[in-house]
Write a structure and sequence with these properties.
By secondary structure, the protein is of the alpha+beta class. The protein is 17% helix and 36% strand. It has one helix and five strands, in the order βββαββ. Strands 1-2-3-4-5 form a five-stranded mixed sheet, with helices on one face.
Length: 103
């Protein structure tokens, strides 16, 4: 991980985690819930949230120096859900790798 709770002064939105998976820069949105009863946590990353995140990701990529070329690094957007099971007290995690930002 190289950044947590990344924000820009120019735009609304925050990227929870930024880190490398080999040569791919990953932008990760984390959603935590205690139940799946109402709707799944990943559903909270709705159209408006994705639009806000896309703008902040673009700003971040503009601030990263390119490696030996003018191209930005290869990147992806992931969503991680965390559910806290009240009976066991243990969280469960699910990774949605390469989640679409255009929805």
């Amino acid at each position: 991980m190289i950044a947590r709770n990344y924000r820009t002064a120019r735009h609304h939105g925050e990227i929870d985690l930024i880190g490398w998976d080999k040569d791919v820069l990953c932008f990760v949105e984390v959603k935590t819930r205690t139940t799946r009863a109402v709707k799944p946590a990943e559903a909270a990353v709705d159209r408006k949230k994705r639009r806000d995140l896309k703008i902040v990701i673009r700003d971040y990529l503009r601030s990263v120096p390119a490696k030996q070329s003018s191209e930005p690094p290869q990147w992806r957007f992931d969503v991680v859900t965390v559910y806290y099971d009240q009976s066991s007290g243990r969280p469960t995690f699910e990774l949605f790798q390469n989640a679409a930002l255009s929805s």
